[in-house]
Amino acid sequence: VSRLVLVLGDQLSEGIAALKQADRAHDIVVMAEVADETSYVQHHPKKIALILAAMRKFSQHLQEDGWDVRYSQLDDTENTGSIPGELLRRADETGASEVIATEPGEWRLIEALQDMPLKLHMVEDDRFVASHDMFERWAKGRKSLRMEYFYREMRKRTGLLMDGEEPEGGKWNFDHDNRKPAPDEIDFGGPMQFTPDAVTEEVLDLVEARFGNSFGQLRPFHFATEPGQARRALTHFVKHALPEFGDYQDAMLDDNRFLYHSLLSAYMHIGLLDPLEVCQAVEEAYKNGDVPINAAEGFIRQIIGWREYVRGIYFREGPDYPRRNKLNQQRKLPPLYWGAETRMRCVGQAVRQTEEEAYAHHIQRLMVTGNFALLAGIDPFEVHEWYLRVYIDAFEWVEAPNTVGMSQFADGGIIASKPYISSGNYIHKMSDHCGQCHYRVKDKTGAQACPFNLLYWHFLDRHRERFSGNPRMGQMYATWDRMSEEKRRTVLSEAEDFLERMSAGETV
Ligand code: FAD
User: Fold this and answer.
1) How far, rounded to the nearest angstrom, does the alpha carbon of residue 469 sit from its chain's CA centroid?
2) Residue nearest to atom 11 of ligand 1 (CA)
3) Directed axis angle between helix 485-503 and helix 451-462, to 10°?
4) Is the CB of 393 under 6 A from ligand 1?
5) Is the CB of 364 within 6 Å of ligand 1?
6) Is any ligand 1 atom within 6 A of the Cβ of residue 402?
7) Ligand 1: centre distance to CA 423 (Å)
């Protein structure tokens, strides 16, 4: 008898584990666009469009390849609206009683599959370098789980940028070279864009009709929706942007949204690109002398280091991870995250670009929107839901550790050894936003003081008990304590006033 083979919207790889286990002659592939998945949070319309278009194309490809695929479109009248519901419907239809599934990247869905009244064979997703077992072996018994040590293991395991037993270039990490402020000119025209074909256009119409009111602009839509396109986007990036990727990785520019970033994350997550293939292309460019070591190493570290590491943390920490709130921050996410007017130029630009592109690069996410939320004391679960909704590459296994752990310190320091906070000075150094801002980054107090300056001290002051003993933060507290008491009182009361006005819905 045939078995059902579940392929989810972020498992669109020919070599996905469940398909490898299945028998093309007998088994039946189930793919389903379901309301539950499109609406458990209100995703950015571009994200829904990317996934649905790529799913439809992948199902066609499987059919051409000889698979029997039962595909449910979102607007099919019989669609039950959930993944378990669709599996049960297909089981009824075909007489199958067993399901082969590749482990989903989210606890919610893993649990939903386990609760189904069908026999389930859940196989591990092997599109990652580190299996759950491997991560556990690495993590077990360690006092702290710093990414850097994990990353070195991954380098050795993959052999990427290795010179025998030694790291290529004599150092594991060239991050020190990757902190240059924004250059005056960017000679990269941005990621490769693709004109939607008929399949994608049909999806765009559907998404417009059903999700047109969600936060986020659907059109223009230029993402790759099939592997061939994604590979071209990779080649384009390696050739035209990678050489400068390292140098300007942390820079921000008011009128350039992409700088030298790749925009490849979503393609890797949904299965259009194999992460190792991406790293190998980067390594090859380095070996050919086309890109410097700090760019190649910096990029490969993001993928076999950070990407693998956060996944390991997500699965190791368990389903309650997104709900953690170790700093007990309770403020509601203010409307400026949904595009309400703000006078903070950096935040306004990051949010607008997020709305239009479903994209912001790492430093915008970490040091602008993330930093602001942390300083302002926003409830980390609300921050988590925001990031999960608004970015094209937001899947819980990668989004939650980055938001809850790295950015909001709500896990109490599993991922980060100290909170990623900064005053306006960092943003001023790394970007050109401040020159066009209503606030004055040099002002520490007063009507036009940069809110990041006020909130920075407010954060340190209100979390003094937790952080003053942290050796990496002693300097910050020493600076704070050297200020006169009057100055400190002014800073704190202006910060309070700012927060109150923000929470009352005033434009800040
Ligand atoms: P590039 O700058 O070109 O980097 C190359 C690749 O490295 C990325 O494609 C990505 O696969 C990987 N990478 C880089 N940094 C990280 C990281 N910290 N964790 C995992 N992979 C990384 N990334 C997501 O993929 N999904 C998310 O939902 C997500 N949410 C984030 C939330 C916050 C608060 C923060 C601070 C970061 C988040 N990141 C997330 C990490 C990072 O910002 C994105 O991976 C990156 O911006 C994707 O754009 P890119 O492809 O142009 O990346």
Assistant:
1) 31
2) 265
3) 110
4) yes
5) no
6) yes
7) 23
Which of 392, 393, 396 to probe ligand 1 with, by most ligand atoms within 8 A of CB? 393
Phi, psi of 240, rounded to the nearest 5 degrees: -105, -25
Buried-exposed string 125-160: b where 16+ CB fall within 10 A, e elsewhere = bebbbbeeebbeebeeeeeebebeebbebbbeebeb
CA of 86 to the centre of ligand 1 (A): 32
DSSP annotation string for 335-363: GGGGT---S-HHHHHHHHHHHHHS---HH
Rounded to the nearest whole angstrom, what is the distance from the C-alpha of residue 83 to the centroid of ligand 1? 27
Distance of CA 438 to the CA centre of its chain: 30
**What structural domains does the chain harbor?**
4-123 (3.40.50.620), 132-191+241-317 (1.25.40.80), 335-503 (1.10.579.10)
Ligand 1, residues 242, 299, 347, 362: which to mutate, most atoms within 8 A of Cβ?
Answer: 362
Residue 406 alpha carbon, nearest atom of ligand 1: 36
Rounded to whole angstroms, how far apart are CA atoms 209 and 252?
Answer: 34
pTM across the whole model: 0.98
pLDDT of residue 1: 84
For 260-308, the pLDDT digits (tens) are: 999 999 999 999 999 999 999 999 999 999 999 999 999 999 999 999 9
Report the length, in residues, of the chain: 508
Of 240, 221, 262, which is closest to residue 361 (Cα–Cα)?
262
Which residues, at least 6 apart from 138, have a Cβ–Cβ distance to it below 8 Å?
130, 150, 153, 312
Residues 6+ apart with CB under 8 A from 379: 325, 329, 330, 331, 332, 333
| Closest alpha carbon to 30 in 111, 115, 131, 118 | 118
Handedness of CA 362, 368, 374, 377 (dihedral sign): negative
Written as six digits, the tokens of 222 are 């230029």
pLDDT tier for residue 184 given thresholds of 50, 70 and 90 = confident
Mean pLDDT of the chain: 97
This complex has an ipTM of 0.99
Closest ligand 1 atom to Cα of 393: 26
Q: What pLDDT is stored for residue 467 in this prediction?
A: 98
| 345 CB within 6 A, ligand 1 | no
User: Of 302, 296, 293, which Cα lies nearest the Cα of 281?
Assistant: 296
Rounded CA gap, 487 and 489, in Å?
A: 5
> What pLDDT, in 10s, does the model give residues 110-154?
999 999 999 999 999 999 999 999 999 999 999 999 999 999 999
- Could you tell me if 243 and 262 are in contact, meaning their C-beta atoms sit under 8 angstroms apart? no
